[in-house]
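Support request from a user on the community tier.

User writes: "When I paste my structure tokens into the form, the page sometimes reloads and wipes my input. The last time it worked, I copied everything first. Here is what I submitted, just in case something in the input itself triggers the reload:"
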């Protein structure tokens, strides 16, 4: 097979708009960065008081140990949650473009913002030993073609200099989409849906594991993941999420 340099260059030029960002993903302003400095300042430069356990914004409901009332009354299985931003326009478009638009080039952008949020709050939590991602079921992975949580976790692990174990967790069965269920149905939908892979059944004991996901809504999925890791002896579980919704209890 003869390699045609001209065709290769032509193909590369056609793909350059996808490979190199030419405008801000949020406001459309021209530039070399995926998110311009103005949008970073406007949407990601404002520290908020958040519940240390579920990352809900504290609006006069927090107590001395930094937890919201919900987490005090019904503590989730995870120990901490770090969120880069609230799930509100226009930042929610980054998640939607990655998750449903297949814009994988945004994954490192989200990872960078998550890393910044973690380092900003490092005084409240220690760096994890391992990083993993919430696994997708086979059917959904086949339909989407990728796991958005894992796509974020890959560059995040590199940025933090921590080992990534994408196969630490397994989905034991397919589950219905959480968004399609009522609150009281969500926990039953996820019960025993996850397991620690046999290769890690012994070595996960005593570890501080960070679990990456794109959005925390009610927290039911991350709660079940954390409960699974704790059953296998994990000492601590921290959620690293890009966005946190403004509603929903972080356990149910």
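"...and here is what came back when it finally went through:"
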């Amino acid at each position: 097979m003869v390699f045609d340099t001209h065709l290769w260059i032509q193909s590369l030029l056609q793909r350059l708009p996808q490979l190199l960002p030419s405008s801000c993903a949020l406001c459309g302003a021209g530039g070399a960065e995926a998110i311009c400095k103005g949008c970073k300042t406007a949407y990601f430069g404002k520290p908020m008081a958040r519940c240390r356990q579920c990352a809900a914004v504290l609006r006069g409901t927090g107590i001395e140990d930094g937890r919201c009332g919900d987490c005090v009354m019904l503590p989730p299985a995870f120990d901490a949650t770090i969120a880069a931003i609230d799930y509100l326009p226009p930042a929610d478009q980054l998640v939607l473009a990655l998750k449903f638009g297949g814009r994988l080039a945004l994954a490192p952008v989200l990872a960078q913002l998550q890393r910044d949020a973690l380092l900003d709050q490092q005084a409240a939590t220690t760096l994890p030993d391992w990083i993993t991602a919430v696994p997708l079921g086979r059917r959904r992975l086949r339909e989407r073609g990728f796991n958005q949580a894992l796509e974020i976790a890959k560059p995040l692990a590199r940025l933090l200099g921590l080992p990534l174990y994408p196969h630490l967790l397994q989905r034991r069965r397919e589950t219905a989409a959480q968004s399609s269920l009522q609150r009281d149905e969500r926990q039953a939908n996820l019960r025993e849906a996850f397991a620690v892979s046999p290769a890690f059944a012994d070595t996960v004991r005593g570890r501080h594991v960070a679990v990456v996901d794109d959005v925390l809504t009610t927290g039911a999925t991350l709660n079940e993941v954390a409960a699974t890791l704790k059953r296998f002896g994990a000492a601590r579980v921290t959620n690293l999420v890009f966005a946190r919704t403004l509603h929903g209890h972080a356990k149910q």
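Agent notes: The reload is a front-end session timeout and is unrelated to the input. Residues 1-46 form one domain. Residues 5-20 have pLDDT under 50 and may be disordered. Escalated to web team.
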